Give the backbone structure.
Amino acid sequence: MGREVTLSNLPQRIVSLVPSQTELLFDLGLGDRIVGVTKFCIHPKAQVKSKTIVGGTKNFKFDIIDQLQADLIIGNKEENYKEGVEQLQATYPVWMSDIYTLDDSLEMMQQLGTLTGTEAKAADLIQTIKIGFENLQPATPTIKTAYFIWRSPYMAVGGNNFIDSILQQCGFENVFSNLDRYPEISPEQLQQADPKLILLSSEPYPFKEKHIAEFQELCPQATIKVVDGEMFSWYGSRLAKVPAYLQGVIDEIQGTRK
């Protein structure tokens, strides 16, 4: 956003506006310094319950944030809204991430470690994640894949975003990567794209097993699976758990396709 954040001291009162980054801050050992989170910040479950809710990711409660007297606010360009962030920037140091790839997420962790004085923990976490992804064995050959995040209307993951980069890590070739970041897809477009694998995300739309049949009707030849959306879209410390989950998905898909 073209702004530089300068802190005279290590932050003691942090507000996090992004669920995956909230989890990261707790895993960096900053739980006692986090004073505010959004209503979507659900991990770690026990610890976030004691924190003040400052609204959603796209509708901040400025009066509550003012009461918290934050000395650092942490957000994300895609998940938060420009007007709200700019209003906060007029009063507070607001640090923003902008994440498209796995490398972007690792850089974000390193920078937050520096900002909060938790460089060593951040470095250990980054190393764990790097090793996990280096050991990931992607599908071979690649599998033409569609990843859906919404129903009625159908919305899929297009190109130039974090989920698309994770699909690539898996050897899942995104059939809609040539489209906008989160395109609306008609049933006819889906049939024309002819994916061999359709992944239905558990978030933001809560796809369930019962939704598989409607996609199977459109693409009878495709393998269809409901997946944990957090494992494909959360770019904080959850990434330490992601390679093992993705390997399970890849192995299962390849097993059903043999």
